[in-house]
Amino acid sequence: MAPDAQSLKEVVSTLPRLAKSLMAESVPPRQVAGAIAAVIRDVYARVAQLAEALMIAGHGPAPAKWCFLVLGSAGRGESLLAADQ
Predict the structure, then answer these.
(1) Which residues contact 78 (CB under 8 A, 6 or more apart)?
(2) What Rg value do the Cα atoms of the chain yield, rounded?
(3) What is the pLDDT along the chain (85 residues), one digit of tens a residue?
(4) What sign has the CA pseudo-torsion 12, 79, 2, 65?
(5) What pLDDT was estimated at residue 1?
(6) What distance in Å separates the CA atoms of residue 55 and residue 59, rounded to the nearest whole number?
(7) CB under 8 Å to 12, separation ≥6 — which residues?
(8) Of 11, 31, 39, 85, which is least surrounded by CB within 10 A?
(9) pLDDT of residue 46
(10) Contact 11, 43 (CB under 8 A)
């Protein structure tokens, strides 16, 4: 439950260290990639929550139902340490 964008940035910046640590423990590459993708998924979910809170605070609730879509490799849960797009 990161309180702000800076906190999320810090979470993402620790991913290389997480990957290196998991690899040092002989975790299979697919599982390392899965852990990274799971963190990225959670970061995107929190970004959507923070954006909604900012919108409500500044302009009130959305005038219609909305959704936050994550497309591409991140949307498929295939995120790695560097974006491919």
Answers:
(1) 33, 37
(2) 15
(3) 899 999 999 999 999 999 999 999 999 999 999 999 999 999 999 999 999 999 999 999 999 999 999 998 888 989 888 877 7
(4) positive
(5) 85
(6) 6
(7) 39, 40, 43
(8) 85
(9) 96
(10) yes
* Contacts of the segment 41-47: beta carbons below 8 A, 24+ positions apart: 41/70, 41/74, 41/77, 41/79, 43/2, 43/8, 43/11, 43/12, 44/68, 44/70, 44/74, 46/1, 46/2, 46/8, 47/5, 47/8
- Per-residue confidence (pLDDT) for residue 80, from 0 to 100: 87
% helix / strand / coil in the chain, to the nearest 5? Answer: 65, 0, 35
Exposure class string for 50-64: b at 16+ Cβ within 10 A, else e? beeeeeeeeeeeeee
- For the record, the structure tokens of 69 come out as 């879509």
